[in-house]
Amino acid sequence: MNKIKSILIIGITITLSLGILGVSYAFFKTAISGNENASGIVTKMGSLKLSFNDSQYIGIPYATTPWGATKTFTVQNTGTEVVKYNILWETLTNTFVNKELLTYTVTSTNSGGTLPQTQIPNTGTNLPVVKHININPGVTQTYTINFNYIDASFNQASDMEKVFNGKFKIEEDKSVPTFNEIIIANNTVKNVENDSMFAHVAPADKSENGLWKEARAGKTEGDKPTYFFRGSVQNNYVSFAGKMWRIVRINEDGTVKLILGGNGTEDGYIDSATHVWNPSRDQATYVNYVGSTAKTDIDAWYNNNITGANNNKVATWNVCNDKSAPANSHGWTYEYGAAHRLYDAKTPQFKCPNASDNIAVKGGLLTADEVAYAGGVYGSNSPDYYLYDNAKRSGNVGCWWVSSPYYFDGFANVFVVYGLDNPGFLAYVNVNNPVGLRAAISLASDTLTVSGNGTQASPYTI
Questions:
Q1: Is 459:452 a contact under the CB 8 Å cutoff?
Q2: Structure pTM?
Q3: Where are the beta strands (DSSP E) in 56-135?
Q4: How many Cα atoms are found within 13 Å in the side-chain-facing hemisphere of 291?
Q5: Is the pLDDT of residue 44 over 80?
Q6: Residue 248 CA to chain centroid, in angstroms?
Q7: CA 385/CA 228 separation, integer angstroms
């Protein structure tokens, strides 16, 4: 191996300068003091505590290729509010010639910042490492930074006598929090551990109310986390485009899905009329959302009501018209995927089983699985979840379509949610039955709010 005489001193000196920002974000102001060469250094900064497992400096006066080093530290939030911060190179000197060989990675626990293997930047100051990191109250995030100088297949003598050193700092994130960040910051997030709670409706005692995180493998698109509201929550109101909405979930891509809501018990429908899914029911293809009357009517409502600048704030998203067929489907009878998950197994999921069943839309419908996550159960009245709050009409007009086919047994059937007659009851009807429609949209991931805290009296205003 080539022996390279280099100065590889990685100084990690954290200096914090934190102020105050935004809704439900707290920031504090301090600076590190003490002996930089001491081991186990601990720094307290308002509600944050920064701790190094060893000294703040590592030094390798002579290095051979390959070379590696690791630095570990923790950030702990001892306060009662969410804190948001960035980690940067405060100063960095990098005179290596073969810069692509000098890399680092950042990993962390508890939703801290991460960075895949990345070339260490050129000499500079205030260079970003990881940004926009949230840390919840009582949480400790452990960071591990791995440095590597790679042994290449060519002569690396040009890097002899070159210098690499630097120090990090942590600072306030001055960016305005996005809508999805504010939603998370304003709620205590609970994690879904298993499917047991989906076997029953959202309970009247409100024990399951709140914002939940689904991050289990196979449950979400790309196995990325999604955050959803469940139960009779009263802090998911949004005022947008002159209408009131309810937040359903933060999608895997950071967009925010809303369903038409309102201030009254009948305000969640697009109109006072009924709408068939399809005027015919005797073919399996009539469960398709594409080509359905329901899609035509939702598209028309969207184009008439979400226009101009408001349309620009709405992301294109996918309606899942899940036509996957489980093993117990046979012959001319098809029980589609959502029927198996929600009637037989009580195991909802956000992931659309077949990518081909995703339909790109601006305005669309919820899935039956999303209704189950919110607190509905097939075949049971569910009066204690927010999806029922604004959908309390009686008769056919009280029911409303969702996008999930149920089965075909000579007649095509699609899931619906009942209104006042059977509160919040998840069921199915033939596609030629006339029922109500509730529109859903997804706001772009970079959406900002003007005001509000999500209550009915003070909704988030977009």
A1: yes
A2: 0.69
A3: 57-60, 63-64, 67-77, 83-94, 102-108, 115-119, 124-135
A4: 6
A5: no
A6: 12
A7: 13
